[in-house]
Structure formats: structure tokens, C-alpha cells
Write a structure and sequence with these properties.
Elements (H helix, E strand, L loop, with lengths): L8 E7 L3 H12 L4 E5 L12 E3 H9 L3 H5 L2 E3 L4 E5 L4 E5 L13 E4 L1 H12 L5 E5 L2 E7 L4 E6 L7 E10 L6 H6 L3 E17 L4 H4 L5 E5 L5 E7 L2 E7 L6 H4 L2 H4 L12 E16 L3 E2 L2 E3 L5 E2 L7 H20 L9 H25 L4 H14 L2 E2 L34 H5 L4 E4 L1 H5 L3 H9 L3 E3 L4 H9 L4 E4 L5 E5 L2 H9 L11
Parallel strand pairs: 1-2, 1-11, 2-8, 5-13, 6-20, 11-18, 21-22
Antiparallel strand pairs: 3-7, 4-7, 5-6, 9-10, 10-11, 12-15, 12-16, 13-14, 14-15, 16-19, 17-18, 21-23, 23-24
Helix pairs in contact: 1-4, 1-9, 9-10, 14-16
Length: 509
């Protein structure tokens, strides 16, 4: 039976082929899972949407074997982000980082999303175990005890095509059909604001275009808050806050928006690629799994763009969920492991959304007295320096302990010159001092072997410094590079090994 046959039972069906869905397909495809992707649009969406990802996202692309492809469509940046008031004073700043960051990659990247989408899709193009159906919109979901049936309509078909999968992941965006079918409601974190988004291709020979800032500027002007982003090459983005009473159908007209850009650029300096109004939201779905249906990306959370972390959150979802789905489908972990996905990720993504909402409150102040008080506050205390948070995962497939447990682990180069993740692959890893690792019981070493756990006892200075800073002798790292648990002694490491969420055999059934 072929994967295109309606009676074929796929391991996982992914609804939606944006960055989150495409990354999940790559991760599961590389693991040998049978994957079906259903995407309602027949081609890559031609207009830009997301423009930024961070070093952790690049590390996830590395795990999925996509780093080289992504390097071809994204540009690194060390320029950071500044929140500037109407008088040009810096209120807040996320400073840029020169060179490689703690994740083993530059910490900020900008890109044109249609090119990134194409690169991620190309990753699964030659995987025979991944079937992609473009132009197929899911119109019906039927749940059964051991599988889900999806009916998907294609534009030129009079009847829908039925597909089967053991699990279905809705990566189908903010209006997710999968979420609606699950009957899941969302927590509102209190930001709903329309903004005009303008994507321009500037003339590189224009003196005004050459004078545009290299860093991301958040203009905290109460008369008209704006964001200005250098995406790369000729591409620039302006995000302009809509004011009360403005008509979305009117502000997208050139005669209305060009005057708003006049202090930086004029119509003769650029070509408008897109002008559209979007409402920025801050929400988190209360439930990310219901039986064999799961959610990822914008289907279960929406992040305001002020931190540049919306797409990154979806990529982290995929990295967290992929290894758990693979383990369950290989029958080396119980189905209940999937319950830890939402529990872990909801707590984690909340930290990013709450910071983005806070930043939105700074930039979106339009009351002149309130903005003046804001400016006095930052003037008196000095510019606030902030960075991307590194929050702890919620309770789940990890040791019940405070950070650094449940926090992303750095990726240094090992003494042999390889990056840590290259040495580990997509597996659990025990990392620590040779003395502590050598003192564990024979039973622990047997469990490492049976569970295909990588053992690294030649760590190098970065990991040795990390262990010393946390007063630990060893740690166990998960496949998604988050710390499963830490140990001070060999006995602690024995106990931690016993708590691994994998059974003793890795054979598929």
C-alpha cells in the first residue's frame, strides 16, 4: 500500500505547511516516521510575514539538517534593537552580539519568509516517507480509538480525499480548524491592536535608503508609534500603529501611508511590495492536546511582534513535540509522554509573550502625558537593557527541580572541534566529568546503551565552566537540547537515568 492510498495509515498528519509544519515534517521525516502534510494553498505564500529568528531557532534548523539551506536564505545580524522616544532618546535596548552566541550560531537572523518556506519544504522533497499534498484543505475530521481520518478537498475535485493517521498536528495558523474541532479556548493576555505593515524594496543607490538604520528601531512616539526593520538587501519593513478612527481600507493607500514615511524615505526611493493591516494579538490556547489531535505554532499561541519571537515559538513547539511523537510511535515511550508537550510549552511560551506585551505597552503609549511620564522614568533610571528570555519548561519530561533543569543548554565546540549537537545527534546525552560518569553502576551503563544515550565525558572548557557554575558533576540532555536533569554525584546520575522516559528497547512495532 502506498502513502498516497486513502487506506494507508500515516504515523503523523500535519495540517499546515508554514515554518512550524515544515520543520516538524523535516524532523519526523529524518526520524523515519511516515508523514502526511496537508496544505490548503497550492504554492508558497508569496508575501513576507515573519522576518526574524534567533540562535536557538538556527540550532533547531541544524538538528533538522536544514542549516546549510537556511544559511542560503537568511542573513546574520549583530545590530540589536532600540526603543527610541520622539526626542531620539534610547529608552530600552536589546544589544547585538558580535560573533557566535551560546547556541553555537549568531543570535539574530533576518529573512524573506517565502524563501525560507521554500528552503524548509525542499528539505522533505526527497524523503519517500513524507507525502505533501498542496492545495488540499481539510474539511472534515473523524476521530477513532487508534487513528484519525481527515477529509481534504482539492480545488479541482468534486469529492474530497480521505487520509488516515495515528496522530494529527494542527499547524494551521491562528484560525486553526484543528483547534476549533478540539473545542479549545484561549487565554487572552491583553493585547489586540491593529497595525499597518509595509514591506518595501528600497533603491540601494538612494541616499535616503543608505541612511536608514541597520538596527531594528522601535519608535515610541505617542503621535505615531512605528517599527523599522532592516530585513536584508533591499528589503525594509515599517510597522505603523493604527490610530483610533482610522479606516484599514484607507491607510493602505499610497497617498495615505507615504506621508508617514517622509522623514526617512520617499516614493521615488522604493517599491512597495505589500501594504496590509494586521491586528497583533497575545493569546495562548489552554489545551494543546486532545486524544490524537495536537496543536503547534500560531494554532495554539499568538505573540505580538515587538520581540521578534512569534515564529521562533512555533519552531520550539516542533522541536519539543517531534522527539516525543517519534518515541511514542516507536513504542519506546508511553502515549502519556505527549501530555507533557503542552504542559512544558505553555509555561515556556508565556514568558516570551508576556515580555512582548510589556514591550508593546512601552511603544504603544499614545497619551502624551503618559508617554512623558514613561520617558522621565527611563531617563532617570537609564536605558533598560533586555534580551530574549531563557525560561524553564513547565512540568513534564524532566527532573522536578529548579533551573538549570528544563532550560536550553548551550552548544559549544567540543575538544575535537565538533559542535555539541553534531556529536549527540537526535538523542538523549549524558554529559559530565569522567570521574562521575565512570562511577555509575553497571546497570546505569546498561540503560544508557539500551536507550541509545550518548555519553560525553570530554567536555571542554565551556561545559566544564557550566557544571562548575551550577555545582554539578553531570547532566542529561534531551533531544531538543533542554536539560532533562542534573546530578552532583554518581548516585544522583543513577537515579536520573532511572527516570528517563524511554523504555529499554528501540525496536519499532
Amino acid at each position: 500500500m502506498l502513502p498516497t492510498d486513502p487506506d494507508y495509515l500515516h504515523d503523523v498528519a500535519i495540517v499546515g505547511f508554514g515554518p512550524t509544519g515544515a520543520l516538524l515534517a523535516n524532523l519526523l521525516g529524518r526520524a523515519g516516521r511516515s508523514v502526511l502534510v496537508l496544505e490548503r494553498d497550492p504554492e508558497v505564500h508569496p508575501l513576507p510575514r515573519a522576518v526574524h529568528f534567533d540562535g536557538e531557532a538556527m540550532r533547531i534548523f541544524q538538528t533538522a539538517g536544514l542549516a546549510e539551506a537556511v544559511l542560503g536564505v537568511a542573513r546574520p545580524s549583530s545590530k540589536g534593537m532600540r526603543f527610541i522616544n520622539a526626542d531620539g532618546e534610547t529608552l530600552m535596548e536589546r544589544r547585538g552580539l558580535e560573533g557566535v552566541g551560546p547556541q553555537g550560531w549568531v543570535n539574530n537572523w533576518y529573512f524573506h519568509q517565502p524563501r525560507l518556506d521554500a528552503a524548509l519544504r525542499e528539505g522533505v522533497a526527497n524523503m519517500p516517507n513524507v507525502t505533501v499534498a498542496l492545495g488540499h484543505e481539510v474539511v472534515r475530521i473523524d476521530e477513532h480509538a487508534d487513528h484519525v481520518r481527515l477529509s481534504a478537498g482539492a480545488p479541482l475535485r468534486t469529492r474530497g480525499v480521505t487520509h488516515q493517521a495515528r496522530y494529527v498536528v494542527g499547524c494551521d495558523g491562528a484560525r486553526s480548524l484543528i483547534r476549533r474541532h478540539m473545542g479549545v479556548d484561549s487565554e487572552d493576555l491583553g493585547l489586540h491592536q491593529p497595525w499597518l505593515v509595509l514591506d518595501l524594496l528600497v533603491d540601494p543607490a538612494s541616499p535616503r535608503a543608505q541612511a536608514l538604520p541597520d538596527h531594528t528601531m522601535q519608535l515610541c512616539d505617542p503621535s505615531r508609534p512605528m517599527t523599522i526593520v532592516h530585513i536584508g538587501g533591499r528589503r525594509r519593513r515599517w510597522e505603523i500603529m493604527m490610530m483610533p478612527g482610522e479606516d484599514p481600507l484607507v491607510v493602505i493607500k499610497p497617498e495615505k501611508f507615504w506621508p508617514l514615511l517622509a522623514r526617512w524615505i520617499k516614493p521615488e526611493d522604493a517599491v512597495v511590495e505589500r501594504a496590509a493591516v494586521y491586528t497583533f494579538h497575545a493569546t495562548i490556547a489552554r489545551q494543546w492536546r486532545k486524544r490524537r489531535l495536537l496543536l503547534a505554532g500560531d494554532a495554539c499561541h499568538q505573540t505580538p511582534p515587538f520581540l521578534g519571537q512569534g515564529m521562533c515559538a512555533g519552531l520550539r513547539d516542533a522541536a519539543n513535540l517531534a522527539w516525543k511523537l517519534d518515541a511514542v510511535l516507536r513504542h519506546v515511550a508511553p502515549d502519556s509522554l505527549l501530555d507533557t508537550y503542552g504542559a512544558e510549552r505553555i509555561a515556556h511560551v508565556r514568558a516570551f509573550i508576556e515580555l512582548a506585551v510589556y514591550l508593546g505597552g512601552v511603544i504603544q503609549a499614545t497619551d502624551k502625558r503618559g508617554a512623558a511620564a514613561r520617558d522621565r522614568h527611563f531617563r532617570e533610571q537609564g536605558a533598560e537593557i533586555f534580551d530574549f528570555p531563557q525560561p524553564q519548561l513547565g512540568p513534564g519530561a524532566r527532573q522536578d527541580a529548579p533551573p538549570p533543569v528544563g532550560v536550553i543548554f548551550p552548544q559549544p565546540r567540543l575538544p575535537d572541534g565538533s559542535l555539541l549537537d553534531e556529536a549527540i545527534g537526535w538523542r538523549f546525552a549524558v554529559i559530565g566529568a569522567a570521574r562521575a560518569l565512570g562511577a555509575v553502576t553497571a546497570d546505569t551503563r546498561r540503560r544508557w546503551h539500551e536507550r541509545d544515550v550518548v555519553v560525553i565525558d570530554d567536555c571542554g572548557p565551556v561545559i566544564e565552566a557550566w557544571l562548575a557554575a551550577h555545582d554539578r558533576a553531570a547532566l542529561i540532555l534531551r533531544p531538543d537540547r533542554y536539560v532533562f536533569g542534573t546530578a552532583r554525584t554518581a548516585a544522583d546520575l543513577d537515579a536520573l537515568t532511572n527516570a528517563l522516559p524511554y523504555a529499554a528497547t528501540g525496536r519499532d512495532r
